[in-house]
């Protein structure tokens, strides 16, 4: 945001205001002095008071006041102040109050869908009271379905904050197969944390018992981790001064909480970040471009309402790039299923249609790659999957 | 998500609640998030009073508000001529929003629509779409349905596995089956045998080839001829003479390759 230009405009107003005020004071002071002088002269001549002398003094005063010309002096500075003063709110309005609804396509969002998204956003952020209140007020009773899984997740995470891993371990055990299938080793990580906790607080025997019961099944697949944990047994009671002291770091708890939330959402078929947060953040980033587009398109309102693809790219940060996009460097087309990206034998990539054109639709005809001296055949180009 | 993003989203949500007349939620959310100063609860309650009255065919609160804001109401004369109460309520709402510099639509709808337009791509509708993409969710797809697709002018390749950007620093590598993964991911596998996670295809790492997808530096046409001459006639002189001009157009790797081969 251009706060500097606003500050400049504000400074201009204050400067003009000061100027106008000091000028006024100066003029008033001048007038005051003239009157005072005239007054003194009148007093001194009081004794030999002749009306004509008095008249002369007053006439002189009148001429002097006319010479000072207070009105014309004050008018100028006042005018400048007014100009600056009227410009300032205009600039404010322009900077802070652009009508962002210009970029709004006049279609009604289905209120129920929006409300469901919002309810589930509250629940996934752990704002259960507000979620309940919202569902009551909006009467979106079916949206409450998203509450219980998130409630379970937050109970697990809350317990972890108090260094209680039982709910987390219970969840991991009951989702053992699915977690395995996703290639997640979170169950082992939870057991490792629990093992260290027990070793610290309840001693070697308990820890060994725990390892036999819960860590042993992971031993063959994760030998290195297992060996390290067994070595910890030797340092029972003084783990903090052992080579394994880093296992005690609270970072492991924080990291594991995040990973658990990720896996939990994943098993629910949900994203880790709230999709509402992500979309709104993308909207905030994209809106200036869309507003600019609308300014260019004024008068073509109809087009905006019906267009199938935005005519300009809306650049978003890396975090919003969920998919690979390949734009053919020759045709500038975005590749699609019908027009896939193809790898030339020289390593450059073009879209299929460009290759067809360059080879004049002949799969054995050699053509020069537009990006290097290599000659290639369309028939040898291979489709890519990003 | 940064803290500012989260506060902004909360103010947008409070705005939505107020406009939809979910006042309890609005107040509660503003209170628990400590953003009462950032939202216009009082203003909306004032509007609600007037609009509710208009719907009951009472004009007093609306007229009182009009009198209060006379100087800022330019076109409000028609307010008194209208016969239809619903239209009147609607008109009042419009004028009210205008006077306070507010959009007529909830902010949520405006940002949501902009975000969906910016994110909407054909890939969002594929089965393999990542769950992190809001448009993988049915509700978001439904809202995005009447909106245009986004447009891209430049390739942006994201590794299927690491989700990292594939560019000159992390170039894309192609398995013999045509599936592409990033160099960083391939380096992680530290194995001569590579398995494609999407097809199960197994291949030797030596069969993997690099794909050149960034054409940001369009190579000077003279370079082609010079390289060709250098290769055909074993005469590197024209190439080396113009080296300064060419080198900036080449990737570091390519320039090293050419130097090594001459």
Automatic annotation (TrEMBL), chain A:
PROSITE patterns linked: CTLH (PS50897), ZF_RING_2 (PS50089), ZF_RING_GID (PS51867)
One GO CC term on file: nucleus
Alphabetized InterPro entries for the sequence: CRA_dom, CTLH/CRA, CTLH_C, Fyv10_fam, Rmd5_dRing, ZF_RING_GID, Znf-RING_euk, Znf_RING
Stored Pfam families: CTLH, zf-RING_UBOX
Protein name: Protein RMD5-like protein A
Domain annotation RING-Gid-type: ranges: 328-372
The UniProt record lists the keyword Metal-binding: yes
The entry's keywords: Cytoplasm, Metal-binding, Zinc, Zinc-finger
Annotated RING-type domain residues: 328-372
GO BP annotation list: proteasome-mediated ubiquitin-dependent protein catabolic process
Entry GO MF terms: ubiquitin protein ligase activity; zinc ion binding
Residue intervals of every RING-Gid-type zinc finger in the record: 328-372
Subcellular location per the Swiss-Prot or TrEMBL entry: Cytoplasm
Domain CTLH: 149-206
TrEMBL record, chain B:
Major localisation: cytoplasm
One annotated GO molecular function: zinc ion binding
GO BP, one annotated term: proteasome-mediated ubiquitin-dependent protein catabolic process
One of the record's GO cellular component terms: GID complex
InterPro entries per the UniProt record, alphabetical: CTLH/CRA, Fyv10_fam, LisH, ZF_RING_GID
Entry keyword set: Cytoplasm, Metal-binding, Zinc, Zinc-finger
UniProt cross-references to Pfam families, sorted A to Z: CTLH (PF10607)
Subcellular location: Cytoplasm
Name the UniProt record assigns to this protein: RING-Gid-type domain-containing protein
């Amino acid at each position: 945001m251009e706060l500097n230009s606003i500050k400049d405009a504000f400074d201009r107003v204050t400067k003009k205001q000061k100027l106008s005020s000091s000028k006024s004071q100066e003029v008033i002071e001048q007038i005051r002095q003239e009157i005072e002088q005239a007054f003194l002269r009148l007093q001194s001549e009081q004794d030999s008071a002749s009306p004509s002398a008095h008249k002369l003094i007053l006439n002189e005063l009148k001429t002097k006041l006319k010479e000072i010309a207070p009105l014309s002096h004050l008018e100028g500075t006042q005018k400048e102040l007014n100009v600056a003063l009227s410009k300032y709110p205009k600039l404010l309005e322009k900077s802070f109050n652009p009508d962002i609804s210009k970029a709004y396509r006049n279609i009604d969002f289905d209120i129920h869908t929006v409300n469901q998204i919002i309810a589930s956003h509250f629940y996934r952020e752990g704002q259960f009271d507000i979620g309940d209140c919202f569902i009551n007020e909006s009467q979106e009773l079916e949206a409450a379905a998203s509450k219980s899984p998130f409630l379970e997740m937050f109970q697990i995470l809350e317990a972890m904050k108090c260094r209680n891993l039982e709910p987390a371990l219970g969840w991991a055990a009951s989702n053992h197969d699915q977690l395995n299938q996703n290639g997640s080793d979170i169950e082992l990580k939870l057991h490792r944390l629990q093992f260290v906790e027990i070793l610290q607080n309840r001693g070697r025997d308990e820890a060994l018992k725990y390892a036999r019961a819960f860590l042993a099944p992971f031993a063959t697949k994760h030998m290195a981790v297992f060996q390290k944990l067994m070595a910890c047994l030797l340092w029972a009671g003084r783990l903090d001064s052992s080579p394994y002291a880093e296992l005690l770091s609270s970072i492991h708890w924080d990291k594991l909480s995040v990973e658990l939330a990720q896996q939990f959402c994943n098993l629910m078929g949900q994203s880790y970040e709230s999709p509402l947060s992500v979309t709104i953040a993308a909207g905030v980033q994209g809106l200036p471009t869309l507003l600019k587009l609308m300014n260019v398109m004024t008068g073509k309102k109809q087009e905006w309402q019906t267009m199938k693809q935005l005519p300009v790219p809306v650049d978003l940060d890396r975090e919003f790039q969920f998919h690979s996009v390949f734009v053919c460097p020759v045709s500038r087309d975005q590749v699609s299923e019908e027009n896939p990206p193809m790898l030339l034998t020289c390593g450059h990539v073009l879209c299929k249609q460009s290759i067809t054109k360059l080879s004049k639709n002949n799969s054995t005809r050699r053509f020069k790659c537009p990006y290097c001296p290599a000659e290639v055949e369309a028939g040898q180009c291979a489709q890519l999957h990003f | 998500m940064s803290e500012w993003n989260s506060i902004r989203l909360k103010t947008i949500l409070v705005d939505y609640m107020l406009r939809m007349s979910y006042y309890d939620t609005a107040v509660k959310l503003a209170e628990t998030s400590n953003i009462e100063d950032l939202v216009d609860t009082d203003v909306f309650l004032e509007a609600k009073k007037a609009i509710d009255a208009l719907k009951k065919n009472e004009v007093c609160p609306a007229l009182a508000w009009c009198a209060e804001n006379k100087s800022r109401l330019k076109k409000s004369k028609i307010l008194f001529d209208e016969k239809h109460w619903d239209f009147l309520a609607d008109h009042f709402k419009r004028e009210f929003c205008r006077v306070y510099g507010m959009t007529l639509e909830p902010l949520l709808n405006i940002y949501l629509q902009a975000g969906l337009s910016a994110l909407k791509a054909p890939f969002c509708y594929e089965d393999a779409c990542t769950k992190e993409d809001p448009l993988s969710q049915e509700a978001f797809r439904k809202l995005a349905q009447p909106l245009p697709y986004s447009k891209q002018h430049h390739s942006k390749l994201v590794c299927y596995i690491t989700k990292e950007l594939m560019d000159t620093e992390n170039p894309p590598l192609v398995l013999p089956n045509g599936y592409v993964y990033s160099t960083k991911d391939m380096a992680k596998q530290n194995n001569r045998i590579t398995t494609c996670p999407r097809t199960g295809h197994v291949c030797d790492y030596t069969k993997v080839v690099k794909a050149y997808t960034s054409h940001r530096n369009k190579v000077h046409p003279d370079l082609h001829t010079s390289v060709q001459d250098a290769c055909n006639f074993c005469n590197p002189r024209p190439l080396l003479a113009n080296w300064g001009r060419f080198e900036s157009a080449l990737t570091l790797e390519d320039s090293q390759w050419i130097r090594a081969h001459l």
